[in-house]
Amino acid sequence: MPAPSDRRDPPPEAALATLLDSLECGVLICGTEGDVCAVNERFAEIVGAEPEKIRGVRNLEQIIGTVAPRCSRPNVVAERWLEQFRSGKGFRDELELVAPENRILERCARPVLDRSGEPVGWMEILRDITPRRQIEARLFHSERLAALGQMVSGIAHELNNTLTSVLGYGQLVRKRTRGFEWEAEAGYILNEAERARRIVRNLLFFARGSTAERVPMDLNGIVERTIEIRRHELHLANIKLEADLHEHLPQAIGDAAQIQQALLNLVLNAEQAIRQNKNSGHIWIRTKIASAGRVAVEVADDGPGIPPEVILRIFDPFFTTKPAGLGTGLGLSILFGIVHQHGGEVSVENRLGGGALFTIELPSIQPASVEPDRPYLIQAVPPDAHLITQNHSIARILVVEDEPTVAQLITDVLVGEGYLVDTVLDSREGLELARARPYDLVICDLRMPHLDGRTFYRNLVAENAPARNNMIFVTGDILAPRTLDFLQKCGLPYLEKPFLVEELKKAVSRSLAKAEARVADSAFGMDRKTSSGQANRLRRNHWKGYEA
Predict the structure, then answer these.
(1) 366 and 221 within one domain
(2) How far, CA to CA in Å, does 443 sit from each of 421, 500, 519?
(3) How many structural domains are present in the chain?
(4) Bond from prior residue into 493 cis (ω within 30 degrees of 0)
(5) Within 13 A of 335's CA, how many CA atoms are on the CB side?
(6) Which DSSP string corresponds to 370-433?
């Protein structure tokens, strides 16, 4: 240990230089006249300049002359910078760099004061806050998407009401113009309405909020819905998309909305890769059986491919090879997380012909596996179901629908089929009618003012009203978790807006057949001897409806 007389304290300048170079932020210290006293290498790194060039400057104006041209609106930045220094007052602001790359810098400046409070210098501190701004922007974007998801249900409900009327009356017009010159025009209207119907359903399916589920799902159907979402944009970008879907693909296990999000991320990734490098391109999507108990979907493109040096990092969060503003670096990492949460695997390789090939493998059920119970869906009525009602009195039906045009469409179709129909637009009035009159069937919208379909049904159940078992619900958002949960619990049939005229007819015919079967079962229980043959026939017809 050296003697006290031999101790050497480090010079203040050396200690200051060591301190400045150890900091993660850029530091600039000037005298009161703007002469540079100290500047660390991190300052040069943050502003994208060579350290030697920054170390060689002698005053603040030279620093400004080096940094300002790298910013957006360089003249404004330089003028404001000098004014702030001359004011001698502390401040905090931001600089937006555009060269050599886009960055957001936080600049904090304040005067250096002596013990008496007199200014003896000026200090500026720079921090690169680009990652923080990116995270904030993504969080803001996520919040906007969440808000949009909440709005989608309401918007879809309104659109589906309109589409129900367009499709329904379009079908009636085409039927009445068959053989006339307007038949083709009616067909065009129906085709476009059907296209709009698919778009609304796909948006609902993608944007719905729900807890993750692991149920059998149709991977081919997910691919088709994803293609429908991007088809128009790809067409405008001269990108051709082809799908090769395995005809006998087993169902995969997972959450269909999450898998669609993962697949959409891959399609968007391929689309952006192509658009950055050329004016047209090609995307291929293929489904296949990967192995026993596994199915796969492949997404390939003819873009530039992935550089070998970054292919191992392609699924890392915030990693992107796209120019600033074109990618968040989250799409593929979200894809990776979703697939692995499903017990699947995702891989990537460069195609021999150019471009990238992504493969997603997912667990699947065996072809002989049985699907779990789902809400009762509208199916085709058995061919002999009309025998149940043909000898009985004409059925009386109550329609409770707050949309006048939809209510009128349902009424027109049912009256045309020979039914007696009462139609009300106010659900409160509809409840009173359902209590007072013996309707054979009640058709009720789920989403209405005053009393919605759930409350309408629960009132009938609480009062043990006969109509509680003879109902068809109509809904514009079958994918909303609350709607799906209600339909699962009540077990009653439903029609999804926008529905076709034939779907309405079949749903009504089947529900009336089911009601007749219940009546026959009751009669069978009361008078076994006199009605056993008829009741057995009715019961057989009833179960045929479920097995169809």
Answers:
(1) yes
(2) 10, 15, 19
(3) 3
(4) no
(5) 27
(6) PPPP-PPPP-PPPTTTHHHHTTSPPPEEEEE-S-HHHHHHHHHHHHHTT-EEEEES-HHHHHHH
Angle at 103 between CA 99 and CA 105, to 5 degrees: 115
Residue 16 has pLDDT above 80, yes or no: no
Q: How far is CA 196 from the centre of its chain?
A: 17
Q: Do residues 475 and 497 touch, judged by C-beta distance below 8 A?
A: yes
In the structure, what pLDDT confidence band is assigned to residue 531 with cuts at 50, 70 and 90? very low
Amino acid (1-letter code) at residue 96: E
Query: Strand 119-128 relative to strand 215-217: parallel, antiparallel, unpaired?
Result: unpaired
Residue 421 falls inside a structural domain = yes
Question: Which one has a higher pLDDT value, 84 or 17?
Answer: 84
Instruction: Kindly list the strands in the beta sheet with 239-244, ordered across the sheet, starting from the edge strand earlier in the chain.
Output: 239-244, 281-291, 294-301, 356-363, 345-350
Q: What number is the average pLDDT over the span 462-481? A: 83
Residue 100 preceded by cis peptide, ω within 30: yes
Is residue 510 exposed (0-12), middle (13-18) or buried (19+ Cβ within 10 Å)?
A: buried
Asked if the model's pLDDT at residue 3 lies above 60, the reply is no
Single-letter amino acid code for the residue at 288: K
Name which of 235-249, 254-268, 389-403, 443-457 the model is least confident about: 389-403
The CATH number that applies at residue 29 is 3.30.450.20
Q: Is the pLDDT of residue 144 over 70?
A: no
Predicted confidence at residue 230, as pLDDT, reads 86
Identify whether residues 368 and 390 lie together within a single domain. Answer: no
Distance separating alpha carbons of residues 257 and 140, to the nearest angstrom: 22
- Mean of pLDDT values over 393-419: 90
Residue with the two structure tokens 């600049």: 107
Parent domain of 495: 386-547
169 within a domain of the structure (yes/no) = no
Tens of pLDDT, residues 180-235: 877 888 888 888 887 787 777 766 655 554 455 678 899 999 999 888 888 888 88
Residue 394 and residue 359 in one domain: no
Q: Which of 102, 128, 154 is the last residue of a domain?
A: 128
Which pLDDT does position 538 carry in this prediction? Answer: 33
CATH of the domain at 454: 3.40.50.2300
Rounded CA separation 37/26 (Å): 14
Whether residues 22 and 120 share a domain: the answer is: yes
